[in-house]
Amino acid sequence: xxxxxxxxxxxxxxxxxxxxxxxxxxxxxxxxxxxxxxxxxxxxxxxxxxxxxxxxxxxxxxxxxxxxxxxxxxxxxxxxxxxxxxxxxxxxxxxxxxxxxxxxxxxxxxxxxxxxxxxxxxxxxxxxxxxxxxxxxxxxxxxxxxxxxxxxxxxxxxxxxxxxxxxxxxxxxxxxxxxxxxxxxxxxxxxxxxxxxxxxxxxxxxxxxxxxx
Amino acid sequence: xxxxxxxxxxxxxxxxxxxxxxxxxxxxxxxxxxxxxxxxxxxxxxxxxxxxxxxxxxxxxxxxxxxxxxxxxxxxxxxxxxxxxxxxxxxxxxxxxxxxxxxxxxxxxxxxxxxxxxxxxxxxxxxxxxxxxxxxxxxxxxxxxxxxxxxxxxxxxxxxxxxxxxxxxxxxxxxxxxxxxxxxxxxxxxxxxxxxxxxxxxxxxxxxxxxxxxxxxxxxxxxxxxxxxxxxxxxxxxxxxxxxxxxxxxxxxxxxxxxxxxxxxxxxxxxxxxxxxxxxxxxxxxxxxxxxxxxxxxxxxxxxxxxxxxxxxxxxxxxxx
Lengths: 213, 321
Prior knowledge:
The structure holds two protein chains of two kinds.
Chain A: H1 3-12, H2 16-28, H3 33-52, H4 58-82, E1 89-94, H5 102-113, E2 117-120, H6 127-136, E3 141-145, H7 154-164, E4 172-176, H8 182-188, E5 192-193, H9 197-210
Parallel strand pairs in A: 1-2, 1-3, 3-4, 4-5
Chain B: H1 3-12, H2 30-36, H3 40-46, E1 51-54, H4 63-73, H5 78-82, H6 96-107, E2 111-117, H7 119-127, H8 129-138, H9 140-164, E3 168-172, H10 185-191, H11 193-205, E4 209-213, H12 222-228, E5 232-234, H13 244-251, E6 256-261, H14 272-286, E7 291-295, H15 305-320
Parallel strand pairs in B: 1-2, 2-3, 3-4, 4-5, 5-6, 6-7
């Protein structure tokens, strides 16, 4: 079995220690870091797809993402040296007034699993912080999460803040969370709503591509 | 018939003089109630609430211990807790506030159910939800043992509450997301179901009900909930795909529902006319069944008192019609 397949399969099982060892072995064998990263991402892709289809649950995603991070940590400096670039950049956060972060974290993991660079702003993030980060760090996508009906309205303020800063055409705004819907997305003028973390990652990749990342 | 009798009969599927009414209204709206009604209690009295959610259980664990373990290890993993005296006996707790609240609501004839920390929800406070979700896979045996010890704690706490006269032990344990369970139903069956059954069997042996709160979609385990003998489920979240038709078809003879007024899609969300239509729709479907009309969660602060008053005016009328 090729080491890349082994990496992918162990990642899917959440075997963080083994994934780390295999990545190190691949590095030591002189494999291209980008190729090794491909092994990690393909594993995460399978997990994301299974999650989207209801075949696996949040714990399986979390342990797989943990395994991916173990491997990715070893690759990071090598990828930087080789000048490899991510397939897009997203800033993500839970909106102001809302401290729930598991949904946001899942989306982040899925996005990283798709090879996107993700700037995690954490929870309780103001509209200005989303927009300023997008401008300063050249993010193609702003991704907002909310669990509460009391805080989902802040997503509309993020759209307005992007308009006020004159960057609305340059950045796409993706929203999600339990009380959010397609109708709400249209109402506030955001670009996309997705029902789950894996779909959010797929959409973010497409949006980055659309903006020429 | 007072509230206690009305809710008891509803849970048991026996006749009642009207549909029982309740709502998690006070939590976020204390100031608004003070300004318009004088107090949340005045609102609850006006609409003749039949039930009361009693809070005030003692902290089940040694917080200082967890802080120390966190300092020393950087992470509190389940195996560490098993080596320590983690749980504090509920017998050491102070029940003054709980008893005061119970006495107050009982004086109004209400059915009193007492908040109890559920298995998964309780350990979210200890591990953090993300860690615990991973631990379910990484430390399955250790988590099983911790949940078993927690069931012991709940049973001990339940006995204290039952001796006090409480009508129902209410486990608060969020397992659902908007479209599914957070974790695999087989994990739930392995880790939670046996402990839940043990709690229910014990509480039933004392002649008291057990209710459950779990947000989200938990339909993959509702057969199991019926099997272990749960008496009432809150909220049966229709907005998360929990259909009332499924309840009516499969579970209406097995357990009651506490819910119906959705705070995620209706109360505080819809324009008033649409909100009232929604309430009529739910009543049409659920009236006369084992259903206690209640909000699906705390009414949020963006709900106006005008809308809440209109909603409960209608609920009050429909419950009697």
